[in-house]
Amino acid sequence: MEIWKNTVESLVRGIRDKSWSPRDILEAFYKHAWAADSRILAFIRMPKLSEISIPDALDSLPLPFAVKDNIMVEGFQTTCGSYALWNYKAGYDATAIARLKASGAVFFGKTNMDEFAMGSSTKYSAFFTTKNPWDYYRIPGGSSGGSAAAVAAGCVPFALGSDTGGSNRLPAAHCGIVGYKPSYGLVSRYGLVSLASSLDQIGPLCRSVRDAACIGNILIGKDEKDATTVDRPMDLLKGIENSIAGKRCAVVRQSVPETIDPHVRRAFWEAVEIFKQNRCVVEEIDFPEERYAIATYHILVPSEASSNLARFDGVRYGFRIPEESLTDMMAESRQYGFGEEVKRRMLLGAFYLGEAQYDSHYQKAMKVRRLISQRVHQIFQDYDVLLSPTSLFSPFRITENTDPLAFYLSDKNTVLANLVGLPALSIPMGFANGMPCGLHLQCKPFADEMLFNIARAYEKSAGFFEDDHYPFPFQEERLWL
Amino acid sequence: MKIDDLLFHRLEKAARLKVSPEERSRLQADIERILDYVELLNEVDVSDLEPMVRPVDLVNQTREDVVAARPFPRKILENAYEEQDGYFVVPKIL
Fold first, then answer.
1. pLDDT recorded at residue A480
2. Per the domain annotation, does B21 fall within a domain?
């Protein structure tokens, strides 16, 4: 088997067994990534092979990894997929990057994303649209679409993304890989360009649940540079192989609505059967307040984003259009630096935070968030895990769907985890319409260990990935054409 | 909800943007539709709910008041459009 087809775990095992060296791995991935990336356009920038230092075989994780372009890597451009930051060079490492580097991992490239993580397709990237490795005419999902496509195509063994409303899980589902959003507060956000600070989390995109646990273990930890992190040491690999018999699973009826694609629906109920075979209790429940999640999310995100993105004014860094007056310079720089979706959200944020609407919109959304959170915590008193499809549909064709509101609704099942701070995973649950689709699991805050245990049990029973047999989207000969 | 030209202009100013005319009509229409959608929240009774600012409860944390060695100033200035004697240069304000 080619080196680049291996998971993180088997690569590390291979280094221990001396089957291959870190240099072999790096070179194999580099060669494959160049060929694959010419098809899928996952990377915004990849350093030259000579610029990447060879990892040390004695480190715990001597592997290359890709990073979503809104996470700082010292000395490299961090564009956030926007012209506003096209020339911005990060002066420091994000804590997540520093932790990975300390484990011996080497930075391999910056991946494409929707501008400032606003979107769910990478179509809103200022530079280009990444293509789904399973079908070049379809979107990879987003906003961490570049990272997900890169992992799915075998360009890197794992990648980092950020998740504000499903940005890790949606592309993972569309590309057929595992996307993890940790409980809010577990992973430091220091060095992540903020979209909505109360919802953002950094998380890994990997090929298997065990890989995600392995990378998660490195990322998790209190960081004094991010005051929202909590001191909750945990080991995601501990107990990951335990039996899940007796676990109580809930399926929220509203998350499998009438409008769902019938093939995704079938795949989902087949997945639920596997939980029953594992002697879990599966029950359908009602959660009427769920219908307010998207509206709440889309008031909170533009509000927080409009304040977070105020800093991109061309004064200290980034794109500037020289003008006579300071205010003209800022307005012109922002006008030409930002794409349309960003402007839409900036204007909406200004509206929600304006004096006239503050109570009726922003304040109200924060209260509905409380209501949703209370209800979710009630549900978790009776159940261990919530199951749903990650996305109700297979990925769109790149040319279809230009309606922003339709894109907002594609996050329907994923925003809940961010609003309430739940840990969530999207894992492959087979195929629908010839494209991968994802199973979405959510547990109560800081029950990440249980989440991985349940996800791993499903993965094992479903048998997609046993013995490192991972389905790859394309044949090599097609790549080398 | 209707966004008239005056309100749009105010939002534009608050968001420090100068939107081009063709973008303006598109954005205006989109924003109206999104605002109509979020009206959905009006049916929720929130009278006895506290606003939720973030998912985890936090207490203020202080750290030792010592100077940390951060090698930043030079690196930060490298990103400046224009720099002079260690300052950022902007158009005349006064």
1. 44
2. yes
